[in-house]
Design goal:
About 30% of the residues lie in helices and about 20% in strands. By secondary structure, it is of the alpha/beta class. It has one domain: Zn peptidases (Aminopeptidase, 3-Layer(aba) Sandwich). The strands form 2 sheets. It has a 7-stranded mixed sheet with strand order 3-5-4-6-9-7-8. It has a two-stranded antiparallel sheet with strand order 1-2. Strand 7, helix 4 and strand 8 form a beta-alpha-beta unit. The longest helix has 21 residues. The protein starts with a strand and ends with a helix.
Amino acid sequence: MEFGVAESGIPLVAWKGLAREERFLYFMGGVHGDEPEGRDLMIDLLDCWLKNDLGVPVVIIPEFNPDGLIKKTRVNARGVDLNRNMPTKRWGAPLTPSPGETDMTRYFAGAEPGSEPETRAFIRLIEKYPPCAIVSAHSWRPQVNYDGPGREVAEILARFNRYPVTTDIGYPTPGSLGEYAGRERQIPTVTLELPEKIDRKEAWDIHRPAFEEILNWAKKTVLQ
């Protein structure tokens, strides 16, 4: 289904499972266009799950920032970091670059909170189909970072990928998805940081059983 349109006019597409529930398990990638590893992992997840009856209501968004993916830039077509544009209480707080980073334009939070069409479309989507948990795949220093009550989901992933589980990505992230969904709305929210340039097949082989275990977790806990 199309849930919005990026600045360039490219549709924002999500695949929603047919199970009828009040809450949905979200998986997303491509938030930053220069991190294609997360997008690839979500496409492989979608390809696999389209062939199976999951019995769990899922929403998969492989390419949240299609303009950035085309241009291979962190930011969207308007030069905004979508993971700093969520309308959080701390939006607009001073930004600190990641270690070793000097280009602060890559972290531009937008002219105002929720200024970007992608951000507004996502907020409408989760209001219509509320998440029971969110897993967002990125690539940087391998870790499983969680916000809000997301530790259990993070530990499931870590059992398979052996990445460290963290509560702090290493620098402030005002306006991030983790802050918006995890900390402020208490939705279990996990940022899966894959190694940069990880082999696509390797990433899928590692995470396929982890994603299946997250489905089982959802069936036994939040979706009962």
